[in-house]
């Protein structure tokens, strides 16, 4: 008999704006499941490229507990996180893969993107300019 692990997926979005230039959206699938020992891939897509093309993090939260950082800057595993968790992707398309899923991996997974949206350059004109 197989044991199935349900993985819920949610999203976080963090962005810093110097002007209001429109909304950045993050898209993920609702939920995935896997048999223990299987593999799951969780996708995260942003409507604009993330900062430096890799500022995306993945978090895990079990049963309303503390949120744990798994992956930072798209593919860097946080210290102490098992090697079965891997992150990949760049620009606006990212994936968290769990290989060899364990029962304890049942959780809510969040992707967090970071963006800097800059307003267009401007020129200030002063009335009384002298050479």
From TrEMBL:
PROSITE patterns: IG_LIKE. It comes from the Eukaryota. Residues 22-124 form the Ig-like domain. Coiled coil: none annotated. PANTHER family: IMMUNOGLOBULIN LIGHT CHAIN. This is Ig-like domain-containing protein. The gene is IGKV4-1.
């Amino acid at each position: 008999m197989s044991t199935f692990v349900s993985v819920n997926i949610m999203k976080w979005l963090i962005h810093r704006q110097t002007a209001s230039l429109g909304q950045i959206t993050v898209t993920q699938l609702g939920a995935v499941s896997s048999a223990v020992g299987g593999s799951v891939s969780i996708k995260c897509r942003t409507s604009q490229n993330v900062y430096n093309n890799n500022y995306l993090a993945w978090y895990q939260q079990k049963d309303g507990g503390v949120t744990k950082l798994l992956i930072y800057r798209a593919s860097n595993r946080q210290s102490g996180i098992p090697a079965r968790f891997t992150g990949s992707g760049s620009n606006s398309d990212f994936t968290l893969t769990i290989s060899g899923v364990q029962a304890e991996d049942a959780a809510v997974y969040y992707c967090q993107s970071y963006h800097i949206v800059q307003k267009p350059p401007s020129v200030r004109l002063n009335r009384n300019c002298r050479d």
